[in-house]
Design goal:
By secondary structure, this protein is of the alpha/beta class. Helices cover 15% and strands 33% of the residues. The protein has a domain of 81 residues: Cupredoxins -  blue copper proteins (Immunoglobulin-like, Sandwich), CATH 2.60.40.420.
Length: 137
């Protein structure tokens, strides 16, 4: 065959009908790739267990508890039970939630000791404090 059609490149991946893998070879390649992926996952270290948690309820324009003492590494979750949005924000800008509608939540993990004052950015009279102590050994 001569002319423009004979100058066209072969199919992508270089598999012309003459050197295309058989269906059996194709399945073998897929099985090998799957086994390789599984062996990689099995060798990966296990994820560490979740650390301690605490919850602050938002209800009647109040954070409950308003004062909370926790160890470093604790994740605090604020849950809005009011019928209007609230936005939890740290005074030092360490964290800031998106606006939380009814029954939505926001979580933040406190990794360093210190005192963290926070407030509702939509209702600034709503305030609270998280006291974070060093993790016990």
């Amino acid at each position: 065959m001569s002319g423009p059609a004979s100058q066209l490149p072969g199919p992508p991946g270089g598999h012309s009908p003459a050197n295309r893998p058989s269906p059996t070879q194709h399945r073998a390649h897929l099985v090998a790739a799957g086994l390789l992926a599984l062996s990689w996952l099995a060798a990966a270290p296990e994820a560490s267990a979740a650390g301690p948690t605490a919850t602050v309820q938002i209800e009647n324009f109040t954070f409950t508890p308003a004062q909370l003492s926790i160890e470093a590494g604790t994740t605090v979750t604020w849950i809005n039970h009011d019928d209007i949005p609230h936005l939890v924000a740290a005074s030092d800008k360490a964290f800031r939630s998106p606006p939380l509608d009814t029954d939505e939540s926001f979580s933040f993990t406190f990794s360093t000791p210190g005192t963290f004052d926070y407030f509702c950015a939509l209702h600034p009279r709503m305030t609270g404090t998280i006291q974070v102590t060093a993790k016990a050994k």
